Amino acid sequence: MMISCNKISFVCSLTDDVENLKNRKLPQSKEGKCMMACILKKLNVINKDGKFEVATVKTWMADKYKGNTVKLTRAYARADNCAEQLPAIEDECEFAAKLLECTKKNKKLKS
């Protein structure tokens, strides 16, 4: 399912999703997942075809961990791990949710 971020209507149920995000929890509602898909698309983490742009994320990581090869190597491994683990899902909202779940899960891993 392709979503139009300009036309999607975010309703009151997002209040809980925004609170979840503030508490570093993933959105649970369809609207919250679609909101995250829109954000990830705007950041080019998800491309126009609804796929994970690991190269974009690695560029950010290179800037964030400049000079710290240990953290950079771990971050690259986590990104690659998610790129390999993500299932093919046509619904961009569900794909965004799975991507966020993967990054959260892999953040705890040490490479």
Automatic annotation (TrEMBL):
The lineage of its organism: Eukaryota, Metazoa, Ecdysozoa, Arthropoda, Hexapoda. It comes from Tropidothorax elegans. This is Odorant-binding protein 12. Coiled coil: none annotated. InterPro entries: PBP/GOBP (IPR006170), PBP_GOBP_sf (IPR036728). GO terms for molecular function: odorant binding.
